[in-house]
Amino acid sequence: MRPAQRDRHDTLALRQQLIGSACKLFFSHDPVKIVKAKGQYMYDEKGRQYLDCINNVAHVGHCHPDVVKAAHEQNQVLNTNSRYLHDNLVDYAKKLSDTLPEKLCTFYFLNSGSEANDLALRMARQYTKHEDVIVLDHAYHGHLTSLIDISPYKFRNLEGQKEWVHVAPVPDTYRGLYREDHEDSVTAYANEVKTIIEQAHKKGRKIAAFFAESLPSVGGQIIPPAGYFQKVAEHVHKAGGVFIADEIQVGFGRVGMHFWAFQLQGEDFIPDIVTMGKPIGNGHPLACVATTKEIAEAFAATGVEYFNTFGGNPVSCAIGLAVLDVIEKEHLQAHAMEVGNFLMKLFKELKIKHPIIGDVRGSGLFIGVDLIKDQAERTPATAEAEHLITRLKEEYILLSTDGPGRNVLKFKPPMCFNMEDAKFVVDTIDRLLTDMEEQQLNQDKASTCST
Asked: What is the pTM of this model?
């Protein structure tokens, strides 16, 4: 028998007593207690419904019945490690391989995106016999020590940059080094990587990998210009390194036009290693590394076994298969493109009305709305973004911010997020921005009168 549900304040008090303070809450001044979720909606202890615009982990929708059923049915039969033969493991690998370029044909299953990225790093170093890694500024690749070391978003607040880590400018054409008016931002950003490689070589260092999210998320919902990865890969391969595409935030049809975000770069670009996590299990701890036969064989050549206790277990693979089946059955990739295009259109219309909206960018249901203080300098409107997020929560819409200035509204909702949801969110933001502008106007008038 389940105990009676606690009051929200009692739950918060127990959390503060028992859970490490480094584990943060959304809306820490007034956190939400969520007790139930379905589809794109979450419910608090009083039954109030919130529209979830944040949760890319619940990829096909919170508590999707097909995914829940797959987990329950396999749990009733068997759950064990991957040292025994089981059809779920190979069936899942086969179905995943059908979504990827042919050369990415060898799979390793794990429990989290951090584990996947750590394994990818190990593989790159074993294959190339090199150590150094190039990453994009503001990147975040996971919470393991090896990944904090290659995550500027984290290491700049900790022990700093290791000598084997090299940071390239994020290919942001809105507020980055080379912007939309640059004659060839693709080549300019790729040449920054080339320069890093040349400087590393002068110091006797060798590049193992270029490691990047296919669409940088923590960096501010960035869409790298098409062709950038191809040029970077050319420089990296010439230096004896490999290209690792981190799809943990953005894979599995979220970008609409393609199943994988790296495919937005063009058909002629194929990474050497792809990592997957978050949406892959719709909330179940599951992750994957896909790579080439050559890299996999080099990794195995050490003679050291790779074994992951829970990675690739029958239950996890049943869930992974169910997620892929739902994406296909419910046409969620096409849905993401249709709804995402509609949402982008609405925000671009809003941008004309509200000067605080500096940029609207995205693909499918991965969208960033960049809030600014002024058009000329594009100064991040950090305080305004935080205020807007808080007000949206009061309107039962869950949204968050990202980017170095914490000023980019990030949309990565469950893929069942629909047209009505999109219109509701934009209409609410329109109303709240109008209120904020009126308040600012009244403050300016009062200030003028007082002088």
From this structure: 0.95
